[in-house]
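Ticket #4471: structure export looks truncated?
Reporter: QA, pipeline team
Priority: medium

Steps to reproduce: submit the single chain below to the structure queue and open the exported record.
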Amino acid sequence: MEIKEFSPEEVAAQPVAYWTGLAYEEIIGFIRARQAELGFTQPQYWMLRHLSRNDVSADGRGMTVGELVEVMKTYLRPEDDLAAEAATLLERGWVTRDDDGRLWITEAGDAARADLKTHAPVWRDRIHEGVDDADYATTLNVLRRMMHNVGSPLV
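Actual output as written to the record:
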């Protein structure tokens, strides 16, 4: 599929918030659709990552749903219901819950997390098709600069 190209002047006049918002929705929609085809959700994967000693910066400790919401708050979507996602993970045997309400990843859950992670490179390749690493890096650095310019504490 061909993409409509704009001149540098036309692109420079475009509103960044509009395009970044559209890009976010399209890319998240693509990723979530691929995950759904495999029978899981993005929040379920994120929860497993945060509970695993083998991924992210987790230390393998159990976490409550509230604690998971707190550590994931910058990327959860309004429709994400971690209590419902936890119930699904419990039903699958991917996590257990202790008497304090902490969720703990099981061996089966960690194996599922590792398997789910193997699909990410294919999705990344699809998203990055036709975009070289230098352009990608420049794009992210420009976005980070714009975030800095508006006082974002995230950069």
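Status: closed, not a bug. The export was complete when the record was re-opened. Leaving a note from the reviewer for reference: The chain has a mean pLDDT of 93.
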